[in-house]
Amino acid sequence: MKNFIFSIIISSILCYSCEEKTSESSSTSMSILRTSFDKKYLLTQTDTQIFFQNANNNYAIPTIEIDTTSTFQIIDGFGYTLTGGSAYHINQKLDSTQRKQLLEELFSKTSGIKISYLRISIGASDLDADVFSYNDLPEEDSDINLTKFDIKPDKANLIPLLKQILAINPEIKIMGSAWSAPSWMKTNKKSIGGSLNTIYYPTYAQYFVKYLQEMQKEGIHIDAITIQNEPENPHNNPSMTMTATEQTDFIKNHLGVAFAKSNIKTKIIIFDHNCDHPEYPIKILNDSIARKYIGGSAFHLYAGDISALSKVHNTHPDKDIFFTEQWTSSDGNFGGDLAWHTKNVTIGATRNWSKIVLAWNLAADTKQEPHTKGGCTNCLGALTIDNQNITKNVSYYAIAHFAKFVYPGAKRIASNFIETLPNVAFMNPNGSKAIIILNEEEEAKNLNIKINQKIVPINISAKSVTSLCWQ
User: Fold this and answer.
1) Phi-psi region of 39 (alpha: psi -120 to 50; beta: other; left: phi over 0)
2) How open is the CA angle 334-339-340, to the nearest 5 degrees?
3) Cα–Cα distance, 23 to 53 (Å, whole number)
């Protein structure tokens, strides 16, 4: 029995068909993935044969009961933000063979960790080497017809890398997020802070249209955009404030109309900021005209509580929820960060209706560069790339525990929440079931997984994240 439990603990995330054995029990191959806080196990994997028994007895150990008939949101994917700095490191620091191996490991649908969703910046983010837009002009100039619009800055690394990723997984979804309008469109004429000058609302709407059209010409379809990253943060570089009233006006009177006129199908996602102000997206969605153009609301968790996602969903259940960003610090602790992110972000966001979970950001170097002047100086990438050496960091594992086996099109299904064993369950399009369980305790935990009136006992090791998958 001891060896059996050990094999359960270190199993991999591959899903196999169940084979009926008797009227009282059924056998299937269950796969389990484990990462421990002390790094002794890092996506350690194997698979083992398990037996579901009829649930006739009153078990004394905790039971996670899964109900496949109670379904919630459909999952679009899990992944990272591919910043300009990330694209630079992967495209320039790795030789072609190593780059191909890494991209296969990240994005292949049949091996590796199976990343299925990426976020990119529209223009520069603070993790680019320099601030830029696609229409930079001297402060005193303007270009209302966008005759000088050019996505050339992205053609050095980001676009070539996206093309390589799409060759591996043509179905990957991409979200674009703007950190700021071009400075000449802003009230303060600067890259940091300020707001969008109302006289340029029509021009900025066309700026998004031209961006999407130019990316499509490159063979890159943008599935969704957020019109302003962190609209309540005027301190980043670049950044731009945008109130809920301003965002409502911009969408209903300019952007939504421009998308409809140009037959743009890309989703418009609002807010893209912290969980402490759910009233912001609710206010926009309360507008009967603006909401016609809106696909959903996006969140970060640098403030507030993850339950804010459910508050917005419950107020406007016909609009989707997206979790688009959470960073880890280069000064952080692996075990503590893995536990916090798993509990609050990956489990927390998906239990509160999010269709995606994205970590910030995919790659940086040993100095957490590049970044703009005033940008984040200690944002740890999922990967650290030092020349041709690649180190995997905590957000790589936090996302991999979901992405590896919860596939696009999966539905979240009901599972009871146990305080000492936070969890979330899914059913994939192929019918396989998956559950991710966090154990922060010093001791291993015995528990039952119950589904369709059958139970299987499982041991969850101490201080670890464990992911299970079976047919």
Assistant:
1) left
2) 100
3) 9
| DSSP conformation class of 368 | -
pLDDT tens sequence across 344-392: 999 999 999 999 999 999 999 999 999 999 999 999 999 999 988 999 9
Amino acid at 446: N
User: Residue 267's closest CA among 299, 319, 225?
Assistant: 225
The helix or strand, by DSSP H or E, that contains position 14, with its residue range, turns out to be none
Q: What is the DSSP letter of 324?
A: E
Distance CA 259, CA 204 (A): 12
Whole-model pTM? 0.94
What structural domains does the chain harbor? 2-71+414-470 (2.60.40.1180), 76-405 (3.20.20.80)
- Bridge-based pairing of strands 433-439 and 464-470 is antiparallel
Per-residue H/E/C for 257-321: HHHHHCCCCCEEEEEEEEECCCHHHHHHHCCCCHHHHEEEEEEEEEEECCCHHHHHHHHCCCCEE
State pLDDT tens for residues 327-352.
999 999 999 999 999 999 999 999 99
Which residue is it, tokens 């696609």? 134
